[in-house]
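Practice problem: predict the structure.
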Amino acid sequence: MNTLRSEQLSKRLYWAMSIVIFCLLLICIPLIVNSSQKFTQSYRTYYQLEALRDLADLANKISRERGPANMLMISSADEFKQKQEMLLEYRAKVDDQLEHTAQQLKESGFNELSQQIYTVLKPSLEYGRQQVDAYVALPYDERNAAQLDTSILAMFQVWDNSRRLLKSLVIESDVSSSKIAHFVSQILLLADLRDQAGRVVSNITAPVTFGETIPEQNRNRSLQTQYRVRYLWDLIDTVQPKEDKTPEFIKLHQDIKKYFIDQGIPLAASLIEDSLQHRPYHLTAMQISEMIGDHFAKVVDMQSYLLQYSHDVAQKEMRSNLKYLIGTIVISLISLMTAISSMVFARRHIFLPLIHARKILFDLSSSAKTDSSALQSLSKDNSDSLFAGIKKLQQMLQQRDALEFRLKNIAHSDPLTGLSNRFALDEYIRFLEQSPSQFSQTCLMIIDIDHFKQVNDQYGHIVGDEIIQLVAQCLKSNVRTSDLLVRYGGDEFLVLIENIELENALQIAEKICREIEAASIQNKAGERIQVSVSIGVAVGASSWVNLFTQADKALFGAKAKGRNAVAEA
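Answer:
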């Protein structure tokens, strides 16, 4: 029967272990899946942001190509070759960026946008360049402001197409992170700011080049562009989260205001004012292009900073999610291994020994000599369980404890009076000596029965025992149960009281003395026998020896008074 029960316990243990492991898997697997999804999303976001960054860089380069193109178209014959080389060199950079961006978009999964670079943007760029080249091919005396403005507008159209691609990429990007999502909008806004800043001067370049009055259409385009620049400048600051407004961002944002909006735009505004007042332009088109380029650098710096900052944030988040994924996997594996090894250890070193101990315990409890009625009641309540064996042993231990208590009580008690004996006194003194300071507030009374030997010799030992019991009873009735009463010798008693003043101790001693004096016993002959006691009282000492010595001296003092008296140390 016991073997069968042990097998059942082992099976239950295996089931419990399996359930614990299954629960751990239910916790760990969702955590791993969730962290894996976060990493995958951040990984995809990082490369989508890279593609967005490349496309924004392409749009910026296309917008910037207007600079060397405009300078070539307004250059003099002496400057023509230098400006042409600058333009061709820059066009090569734009072409390289175009190929790189198309490839990056394709690798990031934006195949349709990659195709549109070749089907929409590249033909538009080629057309714009053809317009520039056609204007440059004209002899200087055949050129006019309308032709120059048409060529400039053709390059505007190229950037408009690149912006549409950029906007489509922003819409298609799956950026779920709140830390990165706003950077996507920032990139689009900065691309707009970069282009609008370049158009401030481009819109009036043609009439200024030929010294003509700026047409209303060109003037309105330039004024609208100036307004958009200010609006975009303010919007970028509004969109940027407070925690991402680093000192560098704040400085660059302020520099755009200081160097471009407050110093660069007024240059274009002053030329518009010259045109309205029909005054000769105080700057040439080449001069205004070169001067505005210096102020325009702050816009480019801001754009470069935010592109790099967004890249760093996306990279940091991707690495953080990767660390979290690895950490989750490692912790999950450690948890599972710890749980499995702990349960194997518990089974081998705890449960199996306990099952074995149960059998031994049951065998011991079954073979033990216990009360038959107790065994019968336990057998009705799952007597073959570990707890049944424990209950049986518990009964045995209770019986042993009761016997031990009785033996200990006999060893510590005086059989005649029921008071503590000298063995109990020795244990109490050892306890007090652990903290010697307790003796300073402890009272010791030494009580001696007056002329006890004479009474004992005259009336016999039985009467003597009754007198001792009488004194013991008086002592019990006058002290607390927490105080220690000791039969120290044949006719001597000790009373130890903690935390008491001398005055109160003397009052108790006097009361004991008077009660014993008033009490009496009757012998078989009908005689009333009265006794008295002498009490020596001492309170406070540095040690037990000193306390006992003081009380003993006080007892001699009480006897010197004629007995039946109380004396203090």
